[in-house]
Each structure stands twice: as structure tokens, then as C-alpha cells.
Amino acid sequence: MAQKKLIRFEELKTFSNVLQYPENMQGKWHAFFTNKNPITLELACGKGEYAVGLGRLYQNKNFIGIDIKGNRIWKGAKIALNEGLKNVAFLRTQIDKLTDYFTSSEVSEIWITFPDPQLRFSKMKKRLTHPKFLRLYKIILQQDGIIHLKTDSPDLYNFTKVVIQLYQLKIIEDKDDLYKENNISEALQIKTHYENLDIAQSNKVHYLAFELNADFPKEKDEQLKELFRE
User: Which of 56, 98, 143, 149 could form a disulfide with 208 if both were Cys (CB 3.0 to 4.6 A apart)?
Assistant: First the structure.
């Protein structure tokens, strides 16, 4: 397994659709894609199923999967190259460094698909819908940019709803049991490796779409913490 990872890491360096900790990329993504189409991010993308899936569906948009694990990124990047998906790319870096790579209003949408829910109270700030991260997203998102959360974790789903209510954010869609809905969009039918694992064993997939239409006063972070104190 270790040898396989090393081979993939070396191969990753040759992929034209993968950037690893690049410098001076702020404001240059449209030049990278050689078009001015909207840019969508898949955060903690793992094997990149959503970035690739969305890239297949929407040729008039650009998609960037972001993850710290090069071994995971390799698979999605390989598929995108093999299929000639020129609107799909991958960025290897930490999520909390987003503003090092994207400038103000450079991104139109963000997908967070089956992230680690960070269930322990002590790790609450690591949840990708915590205000700590939402403040970063707001910097790089366009004014009407949308955050999509798809998760099988009822804890992360409910936590995010509390965040939305506390900071008075605008909900676009709220589906407590996604696959019981009729006429689900093709985008929401894409399944990741982690969705198929059904780690939460909740027999439900939750979906939220919301806008960052309000400020995030840091004093409310303490209120949020108290609401979930064990």
C-alpha cells in the first residue's frame, strides 16, 4: 500500500489538472481554465466524485476539488484526465488556507459532500460549516454564492441548521431525507465513496443549500459553543 501511494504521488506531479500548494493563484483561475465560466469548489473532496460528476453535467462551469490527501485526489484527477474533462481541476491544500488561493468573489458555489462530521465537542471548530470556515467562504464567494451541504450525519446537519439560524443566514433548500424527495436533481444524485460507505448508519442523507448573506460576529461563536456544550 505504501509503495502504491508513492507511485501515485509521483504521478500526481505530472497531472496537468492538479496543483499542489501553488503560489500566486489568487484571481488567476479563469486564466488556468482559459475561460470565464463560474467556478465551483468541492471541499474535502476525497476521491473527487462530486467535482468529476458536476464537471460531466455542467460543461459551462469550472470545478475544483480541494483536499490535503494527494492519494485521494489522484483518482478523481485521473478520471478527469482520461475523460478529457477540461473544466475539472484539483487543488491540494488545507481548507483553512482557501483565501491564499482565491481572491474576493472568485467562487460562485461551494459543495461540502460527506465531510468528517467531527462529532466530538472539542473538535466542533473543525466542522466545515462552523463560522470559522464560513467567514473564509464569504471572502471568496460571490455575493449570491451558495453553500451546498450533503451529509449522512444528523449531528452535522442539525449543527449547520443551528448555525444558519443563529447567524440569520438564508436557506435555499432544506431536505431532511433527500432520497425520499421526488424529482431530485442530477447534481444531488451524485454519490461519493463515503456516501456509499454509510458510516453514520442513519439511513438518511440530509441536504442543505444556503447563502452567506449576513455577517458573522465573533461574539456569537460563544453562544454557539454553549448551545452544544456537553
Answer: 149
Instruction: Please write down the HEC assignment for all residues of the chain.
Output: CHHHHHHHHHHHCCCCCEEECCCCCCCCHHHHHCCCCCEEEEECCCCCHHHHHHHHHCCCCEEEEEECCHHHHHHHHHHHHHCCCCCEEEEECCHHHHHHCCCCCCEEEEEEECCCCCCCHHHHHHCCCCHHHHHHHHHHEEEEEEEEEEECCHHHHHHHHHHHHHCCCEEEEEECCHHHCCCCCCHHHCCCHHHHHCCCCCCCCEEEEEECCCCCCCHHHHHHHHHCCC
The band of 131, judged by pLDDT with boundaries at 50, 70 and 90, is: very high
For helices 49-57 and 70-82, angle between their N-to-C axes, nearest 10 degrees = 20
pLDDT at 230: 61
For the chain, give the percent of residues with pLDDT over 70.
Answer: 97
Catalytic pick among 67, 96, 100, 116: 116
Neighbours of 73 (CB within 10 A): 27
Provide mean pLDDT across the span 143-150: 96
Q: Given this model, what pLDDT does residue 136 score?
A: 96
Spatial separation of the C-alpha atoms in residues 59 and 87, rounded to whole Å:
7
Closest C-alpha to 60, from 82, 29, 87, 78? 87
Tell me, what's the pLDDT at 200?
A: 55
Q: Which residues pair with 107 in a beta bridge?
A: 141
